[in-house]
Design brief:
11% strand; 736 residues; 3-stranded antiparallel sheet; alpha/beta; 9-stranded mixed sheet
């Protein structure tokens, strides 16, 4: 790397000291040569970039993620508070520092305004549901029942219905907590830093921000913990609240962080291993995330060991083996025949990675053996002693099997292997970058050598009079050269614009068709069991009220359309990224090829038009390169975000499907129209830039400047030759 920078600096110095900057502008741009300071920064950034091993932790609420991380990183210390709801599960980033500090990011005013809007929508829906249910109850009323009792039943029903949509209810619940907090958002800074002296102090303070009853919990969006922990050196851990986060801005940040991870652990509790919530998370991860390794962790492994089918005759090693086999069977069962539900690469890893079991509480028990303070830890240890007394008869044996149950050694080995792979990938990346820059510099040097050698050749072959005669020659064909050059340039530009438009529109149409196909595949139906409270009547049976049996709950079934919104949302987001890539990529490729071809076309056409002996092809080529380097062609940048109506995940039912599909159609039509309009605009801008380039005049001016420079060189021929030979010597001495 240092040698490469030195080569760049040497060539840069030679060019500047000999006043060749302007003359070499086109060649420099063609090879992508950058100033030495910029090259140095690029290489240094590449060396540092992604040096950390980035680990993503996924899992539903109460999956045991906090216990898993507390065991893995903090050796069983309860540093990370346990989240009680999706809203209290703040996005948490762990990284190394020589201090103990936490950086708290609060929700923005825009985030809270969105919560308020969603909260108000929830209230309206809940009020509709309440009124409908109250009317039903009143219509069925045959005996005395107070209005307050009927209202309480209707209210209970409305809230139950709202809770069935967890994402919507999360907004409602969160904003209610914000309202009841008695904290003015305007008094909170955008970020807050907590500095502590030890883990105990840090853990206590964090409860205020992410604890279920914490003062600032309703406002906490994310936490970055910078800790003096050896395990975190060269590692960054992202503990996510989940991909189906009800807070859109937090979910987008989570997605971006997960996309940058080298390895992801899905943490799923052993007692409910790989349930529907876990599978929904996995469906939202695709190849574009760029994840290199995926692992499944069965957390809370100790819970399995109390089951009668597992514990058997109380032989702990056998029980552990049976539990592991049960988890593997479950893994095989949930994924078998469902390849179409997941991204192919992710699916391959999910079915091949096996299961890493883990028991975070076992680490905590081992650390405090004989002095358990945590009630859950006490309970787990008592169960282990009850079911496997022979293995917990003494401390030494107990600690051995607690370590076995924790399985931290195996998990740390996995991380170590990923870290080694990461180092190899990073080194390859740096090596490829250096080789690429080295090749570009070498080609740049060769072009400079050829240019200087051409100057020496001309000076050796022609005297001053002959060179001046060249000026007179060019004057006789100037008008013809300008006309021909402009004609060739504009014709070539028209072809570029037409070809570009056709290629872009064809590829974009294919993308929209793919989104449509994916959307169709997510359609389904399900039979839903509904309940209704029926008044059995009053009269002489008034006493039923006393025993709470006057109202009978009846069930009925209804088949409704379903739509899996998660994969559709991902497909739309991916399509937007792909459109941007296509628009940028196809445009750049076509313009790059056009720049190359126009050189050949111009030189060939000009030679045919005015004769081979009138123009020097090398000088024409150099002139055109410089002109092209300074032509400002339009740059393409395309960005858009999904409307709130499409920012949904999970299963939609009934009218929700219609609303989502309508929003999708509207968005698709608007996007297609906008992209088509943007393609037309970019081509129009391209046409205008080419039409206004006036390359003929610029070519003549540039060519004449080069002839005039030769005249100057010829006037002091020996000095000029000495200068150019010195440049060649300096360039030829550059090694590497």
């Amino acid at each position: 790397m240092e040698n490469l920078i030195k080569i760049n600096e040497t060539i840069e110095s030679i060019v500047q000291e000999n006043d060749l900057v302007g003359e070499l502008q086109g060649i420099e741009k063609a090879h992508g040569i950058r100033p030495s300071a910029e090259l140095k920064k690029t290489l240094e950034d590449a060396s540092q970039q992604d040096r950390q091993l980035k680990i993503g932790i996924l899992g539903r609420v109460k999956a045991g993620k906090s216990s898993f991380l507390n065991a893995l990183i903090f050796k069983g210390k309860n540093v990370l508070p346990k989240a009680a709801t999706p809203m209290t599960a703040a996005l948490t980033i762990l990284e190394y520092s020589d201090k103990f500090e936490a950086n708290i990011e609060y929700y923005t005013k825009d985030d809270i305004e969105l919560m308020r809007q969603k909260h108000d929508e929830c209230q309206k829906e809940m009020q509709k549901s309440y009124e409908a249910q109250l009317n039903k109850l009143k219509q069925n009323k045959k005996a005395d029942k107070s209005d307050s009792e009927l209202q309480a039943l209707a209210d209970k029903f409305a809230k139950k219905q709202l809770k069935e949509d967890s994402s919507i209810y999360a907004y409602y619940e969160q904003y209610e907590q914000i309202k009841n907090s008695n904290i003015d958002i305007n008094t909170l800074s955008e970020n807050e830093k907590i500095v502590c002296s030890n883990y105990e102090e840090l853990s206590d303070k964090l409860k205020e921000y992410v604890g279920s009853s914490g003062k600032y919990m309703p406002f906490t969006k994310s936490i970055t913990l910078a800790l003096n922990e050896e395990m975190l050196k060269d590692v960054k851990i992202i503990d996510t609240p989940g991909i189906n986060d009800p807070i859109i801005s937090r979910e987008e940040r989570t997605r971006a962080l997960i996309a940058d991870c080298d390895v992801v652990f899905l943490v799923s509790p052993s007692g409910q291993f790989l349930n529907d919530s876990d599978l929904e998370l996995l469906k939202n991860i695709n190849k574009n995330n760029g994840i290199k390794e995926f692992h499944i962790v069965a957390s809370q492994f100790d819970n399995l060991l109390s089951g009668s089918e597992i514990k058997g005759n109380g032989v702990l090693p056998e029980a552990i083996q049976r539990a592991k086999e049960a988890l593997l069977r479950q893994q095989k069962s949930v994924f078998e025949g469902k390849a179409g539900d997941y991204d192919q690469k992710i699916y391959e890893q999910l079915t091949a990675c096996g299961v890493l079991y883990s028991s975070g509480v076992s680490v905590e028990i081992a650390n405090n053996f004989g002095n358990q303070k945590d009630e859950n830890a006490k309970h787990v240890l008592n169960l282990l002693k009850e079911h496997y007394p022979d293995y917990f008869a003494n401390e030494e044996m107990a600690l051995y099997y607690l370590n076995t149950l924790s399985n931290m050694d195996e998990i740390l080995l996995v991380l170590d292997n990923v870290r080694k792979e990461k180092d190899r990938i990073l080194q390859n990346k740096i090596t490829n970058l250096i080789n690429s820059k080295k090749s570009a510099l070498n080609n740049y040097k060769i072009d400079i050598v050829n240019l200087i050698s051409k100057k020496i050749e001309i000076l050796n072959q022609k005297d001053l009079a002959q060179i001046k005669k060249q000026i007179e020659k060019i004057k006789t064909v100037k008008s013809k050269v300008m006309t021909k050059a402009n004609s060739v340039f504009e014709d070539s530009g028209e072809g570029l614009s037409s070809s570009l438009k056709d290629k872009l529109k064809d590829q974009i149409k294919a993308i929209f068709n793919e989104v449509s196909d994916i959307s169709e595949k997510q359609r389904g139906s399900e039979t839903i069991t509904q309940t209704e409270d029926i008044d059995k009547g009053g009269g002489f049976l008034w006493w039923r009220d006393i025993f709470g049996c006057r109202y009978e709950t009846k069930e009925y079934q209804e088949t409704k359309e379903t739509l899996d919104a998660g994969p559709i949302r991902i497909a739309v987001e991916d399509s937007i990224r792909e459109i941007n890539n296509i628009l940028s990529g196809v445009y750049d490729d076509n313009v790059r090829n056009w720049r190359k071809n126009i050189l050949k076309e111009l030189i060939s056409s000009l030679q045919d038009s005015v004769g081979d002996d009138m123009l020097d092809p090398d000088m024409i080529k150099q002139s055109v390169r410089n002109i092209m380097a300074n032509i400002s062609l339009p740059e393409f940048s395309y960005d858009t975000t999904l409307p709130i109506a499409l920012q949904k995940s999970g299963k939609l039912v009934g009218s929700e499907c219609d609303e989502f599909r309508s929003a999708l159609n509207n968005f698709g039509n608007e996007l297609e129209s906008k992209v088509s309009s943007d393609v037309n605009k970019i081509c129009q801008t391209l046409d205008k830039a080419i039409a206004n380039a006036d390359i003929g005049q610029k070519l003549i001016i540039s060519y004449e400047e080069k002839i005039e420079q030769l005249v100057k060189d010829a006037q002091d021929k020996e000095s000029s030759l000495a200068k150019y030979r010195s440049i060649l010597d300096q360039l030829n001495q550059i090694e590497g």
